[in-house]
Amino acid sequence: MALVASKAGEFYIDKIYTVANVELASNEVNSFSDELQIKSLQANGSTIEWKESYQGATGVAKATAENDAWKGIGIKPLQDMAVYGDSAYIVMRMYIVNSGVLWFGLGNNCLTAIQKGAWVDYYFPAQVFKKNWANWTTNYDVDSMALVNSSTFEIYIDEIYTTGTAPTGNTINAFDDATQQIYSTANNGASAITWEESYEGATGVAKVTTSGSWGFFSVKPMQDMSAYADSQYVVFRMYFVDGFSGSLWFGDANNCLNKEDIVAGQWVDCYFPAKVFKTNWAEWTINYTPQKMSLAFSANVGTVYIDEVYTTGTAFTGNEILTFSEKAQMGYTVNNATSTITWEENYEGATGVAKVTTSGSWGFFGVKPMQDMSAYADSQYVVFRMYFVDGFSGSLWFGDDNNCLNATDIVAGQWVDCYFPAEIFKTNWANWETSYNAQKMSLAFSANVGTVYVDEVFVTNEMPA
Ligand SMILES: [Ca+2]
Ligand SMILES: [Ca+2]
Question: Which ligand is nearest to the Cα of residue 201, counting in written order?
Answer without folding.
Answer: 1
